[in-house]
Amino acid sequence: MTKIFKQAYRERHPYFFIAPAVILLTVFSIIPILIAFFISFTDLDLKGLADWSNINFIGVENYKQLVSDETFTTSLINTAFYVVIGVPLVIISSLSIALLLNYGSNMLFRVFRSVYYMPSITNIIAVAVIWGYLYNTEYGLFNYLLSIINVDNVPWLEERTIAKISLIILAVWKGIGINMIIFLAALQGIPRAYYEAAEIDGANRFQVLFRVTLPLLSYATFFVTVTTLIGWMQFFEEPFVMTDGGPLDGTISIALFIYKEGFQYSQFGYAAAGSFVLFILIIIMTLIQFKFKKSDTQY
Which residues contact 237 (CB under 8 A, 6 or more apart)? Predict the structure, then answer.
């Protein structure tokens, strides 16, 4: 045992380097997850926060209530809608823009890199104000442009399906920038020798794109897919600031449902159960993606 402690003491320096990250991860991620898991089996509310004696252990009742909660079911369906449409749009758009911007390095291309990146660092409140005017049914810019070609006003934020699509358009516009930078960095990291070999073999642009560029971007694409999927499963800011989940819960997401239950209705135990369901769904979807990625690398 003494020998083990001595060896650990001699090899202590790497642990000093990883300690800050481990401490932050434990304090701000692992411990909150464990606390939320425990709270999800209680009826914690404002009375429970004031006096812990008012907290009762109710087992899986919160989870049973979630199953029969129509609002939660609607939030699941809406979130699936956001993910199925939004994730591919973000990936395809950001990859396409990165491919176009990678062809040039002059001032114009550098300006456009900044232009496409700026929405991702713009405050969501400022974005909501501007897009609120664009989506306005009576005097919004979008309906004005449609009126020029004799198209009736579109209720961008007043009809359930159209409102979801409107939020997706906003979120895609805002989310392209970061993923574009990732793809652009990956593109610039591809050795020029591969393109020279393809050119010698007589490959055209489409063959180079699908046989050289896209396969070499597989790891960047995988990273962007995982992070984008997680972000869209936690879709919150856009429905919160633009529609507050309306009309008639038509745009409510799981994250917004959790927020409302916890911070508006003060049902912290119920909200914790919802958050843990979302946590499990994210873990499952991430593991599925890693499984597919592992299968691809084996062939």
Answer: 124
Interacting residues of 142 by C-beta distance below 8 A, sequence separation 6+? 134, 135, 154, 156
Tell which residue, 137, 139, 152, 167, has the closest CA to residue 252: 167
Between CA 299 and CA 288 the distance in angstroms is 17
Tens-place pLDDT, residues 143-178: 998 888 888 888 999 899 999 999 999 999 998 989
For residue 154, the 8-state DSSP code is P
Alpha-carbon gap, residue 147 to 157, rounded angstroms: 18
Q: Which helix (H) or strand (E) holds 208?
A: helix 205-208
Return the sign of the alpha-carbon dihedral for residues 41, 43, 47, 53.
negative
Quote the distance between the C-alpha of residue 58 and its chain's center: 32
pLDDT single digits (tens) 70-126: 999 999 999 999 999 999 999 999 999 998 888 766 777 778 788 888 888 888 888
